[in-house]
Every structure is written in C-alpha cells, then in structure tokens.
Amino acid sequence: MLTLEHTTSFEQIIKKSRFVATAGPIGSEQAGKDFLAAYSDRGANHNCWAWRIGQNCRSSDDGEPSGTAGKPILQAIDRLALDHVAVVVTRWFGGVLLGSGGLVRAYGGTAAACLRAAQQVEVLPVQEAVIAVPFSDLALVKARLSGTPGVRIHQETFTGTGATLTAELPEAGARHIVRMITDLTSGRASVRMDPKITT
Questions:
Q1: Nearest CA-CA partner of 171 in 147, 190, 153, 196
Q2: pTM of this prediction?
Q3: Measured between alpha carbons, how far is 55 from 50 in angstroms, rounded to an integer?
Q4: End of a domain among 122, 146, 165?
C-alpha cells in the first residue's frame, strides 16, 4: 500500500481552462477536510476533489455535471493503488465548454498526472503505544526506544512518579518492543497499545 511523501501540484491548460491539481498525504478524515480547505481557491470556478483512507472515500464535483470531476479524481487515486491521499483539482473556466467526456478526461487526467509526479512511500502499519515509565527507568527506556528502527516518540508528559511517553511502534515488531520495555524495567513500566496506520 502506497501514499504520497509530501504535497505536490500539477498544472495544465485545456481548451483555455486552467486546471491545477494538488495532491498530498492525509492521516484522517479531518486531515482530509483540512487539506481541502487549505488547497481550494475561492476565486476559481470549481474546486473538485476526492480522498481515500482505507475503505473510506469521498469525492465532490463542486458544481460540475454529476460524475464528471470527483469520481474521475478518485479513480486516478485508485488506479495508482494509493491510500491516505487527498486530491483537489481547481478549475478556472476559459470560455470553452469541454462536454462531459472532456471534463472526465480533464479532471481525471490532471489528477493522475499530479499523482504520478509525486514521490510515493509505503504505508506502514504501526501501533500507537502509551508507555508509563518511572523516573528511575526513563533515560534507559528513551535511549533504547530512540535506537530502535521505526519507533517515533511523539510526546512526553511528566507525572508525580515518572513520565508518560506516547510513541508509534512498527506493528511487525511491537510485541518484541513491549517485551524489551518490560524486561528493561523489571515490569515497572506499563504499556497500552492502540492500532493505527501511518507512513
């Protein structure tokens, strides 16, 4: 499963209409909404879009004839087998009508060109872990986690007796990492796991 490494844009003129596609990675439905808000242009005639996160997907024709914009954008995402991706294709009308077939080709083609130009990365399943560690073990646990490939510590908050670390662990090695933390601290640290998918 692939997603995009970062946000990418692509622009083309089709029969005097300007089409600009912006595609980027998203981690949630709210992130998709935020992406659409950030990359839609209120001064344009249409901001058509689609996004996919696993089995969840949405699209919008934003005033274009039904099925001529949002669906072709979503099909461009699916043809490249991308996930956790949003695409906005903005159109400034140039005075020449494209017809339904022309719109499908313009929106789908602009989205596909943008997605093909973007750098793709593998989507890796991770486990989100909340690790409660006493002060006596904190430095050792942090050092060992920092040296473990694929582990990312997002947050560290202090309590009266230690700290709580919020981290992403690679799903494939999560059990081993939890066992390592338990062994390092002789069971003094506790770990709570939640499934998540990220890049």
A1: 196
A2: 0.69
A3: 13
A4: 122
